[in-house]
């Protein structure tokens, strides 16, 4: 088939070629999609870097908190040890004081056993009398 003017063959492809237009449009869409995906990938990378930074900061803060707690526990243990040592020294001092009193009472009992029992009986009657007077005064004051 030839055209009416004569020399050019007739083509069934219209001008402009829709296939070429479609291919060009698809290529432009692919480029646009690649650009948008690249920017989205960059955004995700920034977000992940931010999350990683937050995790790192959290880990640092947690390590500092554990270190502070460890120091506080060590200080408390040292304080408890000092308090226990003081209590033990005080208890030992009290026991020593009681030992002295017990020894003094033993000596007095030995002295009393070597004296005659009449004097001991007199002391006991006197002590009982004093206790009776104190009880009577106490009862009188309560009434």
Low-confidence stretches: none
SS class: mainly alpha
Radius of gyration: 54 Å
Number of helices: 2
Order of helices and strands: HH
Percent helix range = over 70%
Number of DSSP strand runs: 0
| Approximate shape | rod-shaped
> What's the story with the biggest beta sheet?
none
Mean pLDDT: 84
Strand content: under 5%
Describe what this molecule looks like in 3D.
The protein is built from 2 helices and no strands. With 143 residues, it is mainly alpha-helical. 0% of the residues are buried. The mean pLDDT is 84.
SSE layout and pairing:
Elements lengths: L17 H97 L2 H26 L1
Offer a quick outline of the entry.
This protein has 143 residues and is an all-alpha fold.
What descriptive keywords fit this protein?
143 residues, mainly alpha, 2 helices
